[in-house]
Amino acid sequence: MEFESISHKRNEYINGTSDMKESISKYLKHYKWFILSAIVFFLIALIYVQFQIPQYRIETTLLIKESEKGKSITDLSSFENAGLIGSGENILENEIQILQSRRLMTKVVQELELNIKYFIEDSPYDRELYPTSPIFIVFDPEIGTIEDLSASFEIIIKSESQFEINTLNNHPNSVHDFDKEFAIKLGEEDFISKGKLTIFVNDSFTPDLIEKKIIVNIATVNGIVSNYLDQIVIEPINDQYSNVIAISLTDSKKNKGIMILNNLIEQYNADRINDENLISQNTTKFLDDRVDLIIKELIAIEETAEQYKTQNLINEKEGTEYYLESSSQNENQAIAVNTQMQLVNYVLDELSNSAANELLPVNIGLSDLDLVKLIGEYNSIVLRRARILKSSSERNPIVVNLSSQLEGLKDNIYSSLRSLKSSLQIQINALKQQGGIINTKIASAPKNEREYNNIVRKLETKNKLYLFLLQKREESILANAVRFEKAKVINEAYSEDMPISPKKKIIYLAAILLGLFFPASIIYLNDLMNTKLQDSSDFEFS
């Protein structure tokens, strides 16, 4: 019984092997068709690839640098628990949103004139001329903006001085001279009634371009901006604690993509510098106003001193020096404290009169470093909120959160100023009491001399405050001259020599496999149909 089972299995294996050999031989006898089909499909794939415009991936890497206070965006975690600012990850996300904003990309498109493309007729596809074209068009400034214009036309170069233009809108071709204005109707805009355009010859123009055709495509700026915003990818590198972000873009021209990414970073840094200038300008204006006020007060005190001397015949050399030396230490302390008190009052006035979300002056000489730090953080959030509002709305959750933070910071600044003012007032009262003791010691001095000394002290206090504010104004002007770029480029924009599409190897392999599958499927279907016909014949015969 066991022997019969083994024999049966051996017969099944032999029969299966025989059927497999028969199936393989059935396909192999048509091997010429397999080879021919693979060659045909490979040639079709080869032609397809030749007509595809190569696309390249352009990349750059940059570091979002530390702020003007010397702290990077991830070093602000100590303020998160206080609810003053968001997390470092959110701040980095804000910077990414600014880089992806339509506002910055619009500036890039306008500066690089990406809405106007030049192509030279070529095979198998027209070749784009960028960054330089042998010709370029300039519209009459009287036309105004052409950002909403969408049109396409052909220029056939007839000679080094003339060209023929075809507007592709059923209008007859016309011949014009280079570097001379002419009227033309393009798209939906009638430039005949609004102005003219001129086609200039560039330095790259050569005689071998004669009789060549150049296609000019003009697209709307908004359309080009939307197209690049869809293509650009900005994401952080490593993890949420990294300040390094990668920017990538896909384009058919490597040099164009490189210029776009470089210009985008330039626009981003320029935006940052503009924010820094706003703070410095605001602080300088604040100091200018205070300097003007001090000058008026100095003039008034000097006039009072002059009149008092004239009326009372005061001689400054008769005892003033002695009395000033006796109370110099107390007066110097009083001057310093009074200076701080006036600065506190200035900031309180500015805070009360300033509108919501308006920058506050910094670096004006306040001695309370914590208060200076609070004002700096307040200005930083005001600028961040303003940048986000340029490409968003008041309803944006990030804007709402920043507004809430600003309200809390403003209350903290008010509280700190009031506390500092109370502390300074206590010091002033103590110094006045000490000054009263000193004054009792010099009570024997003539009344006129004592009153004149009071005027001199006021004048000296105002002079020192005036010089102090002048110094701070110069520091603010110097700060305004410094250019602090927010983004530091780690890897310059670059692209690999190999395009990312079309993927030639994959297309060729798929074509060969499809070429082998096609005749195999035909042979299989043919055998299947023959088998069914044979089964049908056997059934009818029976």
Quick take:
It is built from 13 helices and 15 strands.
Record the SSE blueprint:
Elements: H1 2-28, H2 31-50, E1 56-64, H3 88-99, H4 102-112, E2 116-120, E3 127-128, E4 135-139, E5 151-157, E6 162-166, E7 174-177, E8 181-182, E9 185-186, E10 189-190, H5 191-194, E11 197-201, E12 213-218, H6 221-231, E13 233-236, E14 244-251, H7 254-312, H8 320-326, H9 328-353, H10 369-390, H11 397-441, H12 447-481, E15 487-495, H13 504-541
Antiparallel strand pairs: 1-14, 1-15, 2-3, 2-12, 4-11, 5-6, 5-12, 6-7, 8-11, 9-10, 13-14
Helix pairs in contact: 2-13, 4-6, 4-7, 7-12, 9-11, 9-12, 10-11
Structure description:
The chain has 542 residues and is of the alpha+beta class. 58% of the residues lie in helices and 14% in strands. A six-stranded antiparallel β-sheet has the order 3-2-12-5-6-7, with no helix packed on it. The protein has a four-stranded antiparallel β-sheet with strand order 13-14-1-15. A hairpin with a 6-residue loop joins strand 2 and strand 3. Helix 4 packs across helix 7 and helix 10 packs antiparallel against helix 11. It is elongated, with a radius of gyration of 41 Å. The chain starts with a helix and ends with a helix. 18% of the residues are buried.
